[in-house]
Amino acid sequence: MLSYIIPFCVYLSFSLAVLASPSTRLRDVYQFPNGTWLENIAVRSTGNVLVTAYNLAQLWEINLFNGTNSHHARLVHQFQNPGTITGITEIDQDIFVTIASNSLWKVDLSTTEPVVNPINITIPAGTLNGMATLNDSSLAISDSSLGLIWRVDIEQGTYDIMIRDNTTATSTALGPNLGVNGIRILDGYLYYGNSPQRSFYRVRVHESGNTVGQPETIAQGVLADDFAVTSSGAYLAGLTDNVITKVSLNGEAHVVAGTRNSTAVMTATSAAVGRTRMDGNVLYITTGGETQEPDIQWWKYCAKTFNNPSDFLPSRAELSMQCHRTLALFVSQTSPSSLWMQVPWAMKRVWRNYPKVTPLHIHIGRRNRPGCSHYHVISNRNLNSVSGKRICITKYQSRDKTRLYKFHRPRNFVTTAIPSLLVPPLIFVGLLLALWTWKCFWIVVLQDKLLYLSWLPPLARSEKITDYEAECRPVQWTEKQICSLDGTQLAVCEGRIPLHSRSGGRIASVTSGEDYPRGTKMKKRKSVVICYFQGNGGSTPLRLPLLSQVLRTIKEKSMSTPLSTSSPDGTEFTIVALSYRGYWTSSGRATQSGIELDAQAFLDWVSETYTAPETDLEVILWGHSLGSAIASSATATYLSRHHGDQSSVSKGGTHLPVNIAGLILEAPSSSIKDMLISLYPQKWLPYRYLWPFSWNHWSCTTAMERIARWRDQNEEQSDAIIQRVKSGAPMLPRSRHNCISLESFRSPPPILLLSAESDEVIPPHVADGLESDGKRLKLELERKDVRGALHTEAPVKVDGREALVNFIFRCTSERARVA
């Protein structure tokens, strides 16, 4: 079994390690030309991805499943340029609404050619940014400049304020005065982020679009431009943090892609989850491109006043002049959306190198300069009031690589803190521990099903005696029904070889119930009943051929060597085999407590059935494997029940207890603990250590200790009875049946350990331990190791069968002489 489990665990651990490592799954989907800033993303039901190019005012569609490594991209629409395009959302199947230059546009992709039309609604907006669909006609739109979320009905042409509070409020923490940014709808909640506040919120919304209750904070300290939200959490595009952060609904946050100083997902702007079967676990990411560190050069310029800083660009000569007053003025040749992100970094650089520079509250204003691209002046005061200025002009050498990324989302494995080299062995060990724990759990829970295998082999409970009749001849087997002590119906198989008189006529069985002529004195007939207790698997009919072979050997030996001269017609030998509850045709479910009741009811039934006025009854108990523990336990319990007090033996009873002449333990198991160790010999397997959790406590050792304890407790009482007889004192009234001899009352039965030398289930050291226990307890015990015998073959081998038969004859003949 391990030869299959270990390779499977190795293969599965490496597979899960690959799936669990987001960095190894990150790859480019499409790269746009330099200078392109991707702002938002949406995924169509077909799997194609729509992206908005912010600074180009373009809407693009990328086909991810065209069957080639080079994904095809097409321009869906070019909006008015110069202009911008920000949010996009789907309001119906393949019908989208986007924001271009602070206006709403409807994009219909359900036809062959896209149809783009403006939506006739004017919102007094500052900067419309994120957008989400509330219902078929209503949208939620974030206004980053005004710090609020609009509710817009595109069919009615109406709008109103949906949320305006501290969670959406603007702040200058990142530079410009901005507030709420990306928004998404999922499962009745509106999720939104506030980039300057580095906070992530949600609020419950009704189908009508009205909010229910107050917004709740999911996480703080995480930067989010836009994001994708799923049932397991939200994936936040970290913009200048250069990471994708997963935030669970309980507020736990961890990075799943990128690092602070890496270029993997640099300036991530938005994210969306795939919608098809092929990309359901894929997260698509847009970025604004990678930018080199600003090349900051300093010029010192002294002038009393100047009116329009945007028209001023100092020359080298002017920059060489000295000035004493300090003031920082930042001029940048980059896009407005990236300016407010880069300026704080540049200001820190300035203040570190030039501590005397006066910090300013910045403000972004757009200026046009003839003959070159636009640039931006950041200032918050009238420079005319400053007599001397120190001007910082930041020049960016841009190598923008605006990309669309995708990576497979981690499937509940947090491996970012674990070295990749350790992931496969850790998963492998975890799988083994999980398999061990799972199997241990079911071994404990289903131990009755695993111990009492009445269902093996298949159809075992539907077998019949007639199926084995030919193999059992001349032994005749019949099925009888008895009741256990709790009323459970049990099946018993009775087998015997018919007795014949010397004249050839059949002599009536001792149990036939025929009446003898009055006045006729019958000699005592010896009857030996062998009570067989099967192992834990299979049904009783399966064992009848083996029992018949033993009975034939006994009969042949008895014909050649009579047990008693007082019994000229020989001794009748009978084998009765008990089917425990839950086995063969017996009702009920097999449990230890129930089987113990069955064994006592079985011995009581033997006493009632085979005891007769002129019969000397001897009983041999024979148990195989688990049946050896059942037989030894039944012996100890039966002796304690019936022989603990002599007065109880003859108190108005209809029969005396049977005389247990011998106990045969074939391939015995000492205890459940030893059985587990024999089944799982490897010390590194946990199954062998489960014995404390077992509620089945079969043990031959414990039963022998009980027999020895009974012997010691009753030795004094039996000695007192013997002394009473010798002194001539009257005995207790005798019953109408035979009385047990005083010697048999005092002595426990002899025990035969019949072990299989090549037992594949029970190791030989178990018999060694039982033999040692028997000698320690001073019990009459003999052992026979059958060479070459497997677990069920000890009586099949000639020497094993002879040892068993000789033990039966020795026990019954010695008891007969004592009686």
UniProtKB/TrEMBL annotation:
N-terminal signal peptide: 1-20
InterPro entries in alphabetical order: 6-blade_b-propeller_TolB-like, AB_hydrolase_fold, Hetero-Diels-Alderase-like
This protein's UniProt keywords: Signal
The keyword Signal belongs to this UniProt entry's keyword annotation: yes
Entries under PANTHER family matching the protein: NHL REPEAT-CONTAINING PROTEIN-RELATED, SMP-30_GLUCONOLACTONASE_LRE-LIKE REGION DOMAIN-CONTAINING PROTEIN
Protein name: AB hydrolase-1 domain-containing protein
